[in-house]
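Fold this sequence, please.
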Amino acid sequence: MMNYIWVGLVVIAVIAGGVTGTMEDVLNNIFSFAEEAVSICIGLIGIMAFFCGIMKVMEKAGICNLIARALAPLMTRLFPEVPRDHPAMSAMVLWMAANMLGIGNAATPFGLKAMQELQTLNPTRDIATNAQCMMLAIGTTSVTLLPVTVLGLRAAVQTEGAAEIIFPVIIATTCSTVVGVFFTWLLGKTRRWKWENVIEREIAAGTLALNENYLGDSPIVLPEGYVCKAE
């Protein structure tokens, strides 16, 4: 979808430039900002490499496991369906830690791993569990204590005041996370979006597909003779 959006913006800019007679300015800006984008990316390499390396060292040294145990009380409240010793817990802790440092590139592999582990606790193939929804909500609104990527971008274009955004970012992301977690929990309790009710509607519609790789202890028992229309 993002590819289509960016292509659309470029096409609109070219058409607007042709109609208004400013095509030369459009082309000059394209080449100018392309060069600037490369310069900013090169400037970010050192920062990203450093913090991604820190995350890897923490993982190998077992610090992440210590953090996971320290956050266990909070994690079990946010994800009551996930056992404390399940691999998904460690993956989610690493993912949350990377998000808190504002390292999106480092957080992505941990997030994919966490979602993959959570899927082993999902008896369905296509319907997200409460834990998966909560993880997405936290990731989307993530509390950011140190916005490394944004700091790197600001430092690349200005020499002073790059760190001025840290405190406002902490306040804004904390508020967004609280709101996101609250409404995810609230909607999960409503009749329309409650997971059990969604499963019942899918079974009634004949569209529920089971997860063949489910490793939990609460499998869904389908009615006798049930045939999934999606298959």
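The radius of gyration is 23 Å. Residues 54-205 form one domain.
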